[in-house]
Every structure is written in C-alpha cells, then in structure tokens.
Design brief:
With 384 residues, the chain is of the alpha/beta class. Helices cover 40% and strands 20% of the residues. The strands form three sheets. An eight-stranded mixed beta sheet has the order 3-4-2-1-7-8-9-10, sandwiched between helices. A six-stranded parallel beta sheet has the order 13-12-11-14-15-16, sandwiched between helices. A two-stranded antiparallel ribbon has the order 5-6. Helix 7 crosses helix 12.
Length: 384
Amino acid sequence: MTKNQKKLHVLQVNKAYYPHIGGIESLVRVFSRELQKREDTEVQVLVCQEKGKGRTDILENVPVHYASSLGTYFSCPISFSFVRQFRNMAKWADVIEIHVPFPLADLACLLSGYRGAVIIAWHSDVIRQKTLLRFYKPLLLQFLKRADCVIVATQGHISSSPFLTRFSEKCRVIPYGIDVEAYRAIEKKPVLRQIQKDPHSVRVLFVGRFVYYKGIEVLLQAFQKVQRCELFLIGHGTSEMEEKMQKMTRQMNGEVHFMGNLPEQELRAAFADCDMFVLPSVANSEAFGIVQLEAMVYGKPVINTALPTGVPYVSLDGKTGITVPPGDVQALAAAIQKLADDPQLREIYGKAAAKRVESEFHERDLVNRVHDTLAEFAERRQRI
C-alpha cells in the first residue's frame, strides 16, 4: 500500500458478535479480524445486543458497535437505535457486507440512502418462520435488487433457494474455511477415550446445538441399530430437548455420552480423537456445516445428509465420507456400521478429507477472495 493510498473501509453487519456463540457469528469474527490485519483495509462491525443498552468494544483490534435492543422476536433483534447507527456508520463505509437472514439490517440499509457497495453474505433462507417470511419477502426481494453482489458458500445455496435462483447472476461462490495450521497445532488429548467405556469400540462424534434441524433424534434411533460403537454428543439445547434426548438414550443398549459444551481447545481435541463424525441434519436450515471441516482437517471421515443445501458439497459421498438421505434412520445406521467395520475405508476417506480441507477450505485463501470481492464492488460504485 502506498503512502497516499486510501484504505478500504469495510462495515460488517450481523445480528450478533462474539462473545455470542454461533456459526455465523464465528465467521463474521474471523473475517473481521483477518481483514483488519491487512494494511489496505479498515473494518468496523455493527451488531445488536441480545438485550440491553448499546456499547462499543475493541475486540482483536476490531471496533464492534453493539446497538441497544429490546430483545428478539422471531429470532430477529428489536432495535430502533440500530437503524440510526447504520445510517451514521454507512457514511464512513466504502462497502457494507450484511450477513443474512437479518431483516432489520435489510430495512436499515434500504432506509439509509447509502449509495456505496452493498454485499450480501447469504448464509441460509428463512426456513421455519413461515409467518415472518410472508411479511419479510417483499423487503428481501427489494434488498436483493439493491445488492451489488451476493456471496454464498456453495452452489447448493443458490439452487436450493427460491430467492437466489432469481438473482443467480449476482451470486459469487466463496466457501467458508478454517485455519488449518491453528487446528493442527493443538495439543492432542484423549478427550473421548478418557470417558469411553469399551476401549475397542469405535468413537462416533456429533457436535452442534440440540435443535430440530440437526437430526439428533434420527441419529439416536439409528444408533440403536449399530454394533461396537460409542456415540459422543457435544453441545446443548433447551431443557426440554435435552430431557427428550436423555430419555431416548435410557431406552438404548449402546453407549451414548452427553458432554455439554467444551472450551475451544478441548473441542478441537475431541474432533481429533474421534473415529468418524456424523452430521445427520434433516432441514435446509443446515446450509453448510462448518463442523464437517473441523473433523475433516484431522483426517476424519464424515457421514452427512443429501440436503439440497451446501452440506453434501463439503464432504463428498464416496470420497471423504458417506452421504445418506435426510431422516433415513436405516441408511444412517448402515453408513455408521460400514465405517465402523472397515478401519481401512475410514483411513482412505479421512486422508482424502484432510487434503480437501487444505486445497478447498483454507481460511487464508478464502479471506483474500472475500477482500478482493469487497474491493472490486467498492471500486465499481466509486466509478458511477
């Protein structure tokens, strides 16, 4: 960067940010932090409080502005100050990247009068909130018309969305990624083996929130049909959901371990300590499944489901693991048993999985592609 060259000002907009835990929040944090490290780029973040007064923090050298919020409704923050702050911060930005679904941000952008570049990072469609979608649809379509570019993680995001298929010419595929070196630099610990009942059993791992679309009930039903395996569940959900899962396991013969949430290093060690990873999702709310990468980077085969989203684009059927129909208990049980009975196949798939992460999903390469996209459309707008 030359001495007189102006930095690219990037405003990242999302519902929430660290310390809130979630897949999208983790991605926004990574991209904000890594883009801020570049000499030619300056980043600020605008999000909402879960509830309460607004504040501004500096996290990992990134200014993060938390707008005040009255709480959430249909998973969307209720914040009047967010619209005002968006308008003010937009005056600073050369390009704004808005992570959706987030209806309040769509509205704030359209009301702001902002004339710079708008990039949508499309993480998933609105799936379950049918009532909200009925009112949100006109706003979303107007927002998509306004956007300069829509970044999606896989081609499946486009083909599975009734909205994006209408704006496919604006879409650009840039996958999510992970820091391969950081994941592999962890201290290896027997996180699963230390609670394993039978040292000769095969360790099957699930990581995620206990919510409807993750398919945990299907996984537990399938596990009843599996021999010589132990299942390890990392994550949590509502008390009702967790009680339901516990009740199901009490009626099972196989060993199931509920491990709750783990600190980051312990969680990564758990991925490294499993024999296979299972993502049994049953609904399109599962748009990618970064947890697949977290297992694959350690050379673990993955069993996923053939959703029309990006899930089966991450781990490939017959190459890095096995893909089964969503909700198919018998097929899922058969896939688990097949890998459990064949250590050589697990090794073949696992090695291919590790290579796929290195070549296709390395965080460094993908951050550079996002930066180049933001810079490209910012420059286009400046020429208008």
